[in-house]
# Entry
Amino acid sequence: MYIITMSLPEIFALSCSEIVGDFGFKSFANGGGVVPFVIGLSGYIGVVVMLIVSLQNSTVLMVNGAWDGMSAAIESIAAYLFLGERLQHPFQYLGLFLIIVGLFFLKIPNSKNKLFVWPSLFATKISPLSNSKIS
# Structure
């Protein structure tokens, strides 16, 4: 038995934040400007926040797998619809489809079974990566 405490809405919000960041930075990279840069930066600030929320009481393996899959699916659809971007070979579309199928095998729940609590910057818990205190 395994416990998953992240949820589909969290991973969806994480992926949407990444889309905002990517689209903003794409616009900035191709034309410059303060507004596209701020949009891109705000998208990635959202990514950091949603990544922290998703990782709390979950595993990097599950969160990263779900995020990569959902982001690939949602961002590809958005790029196709809003930016007019296309892949060059039909097998590339098959690859995206297989990524989406892979998300179903992760069995991500629709809701989180634990309330999120923002972690302290000056934590005194033992780090799971070492036996020393974090300070």
In short: The longest helix spans residues 8-31. The helical segments are 8-31, 34-55, 60-82, 90-106. The two ends are 33 Å apart (CA to CA). Residues 8-106 form one domain.
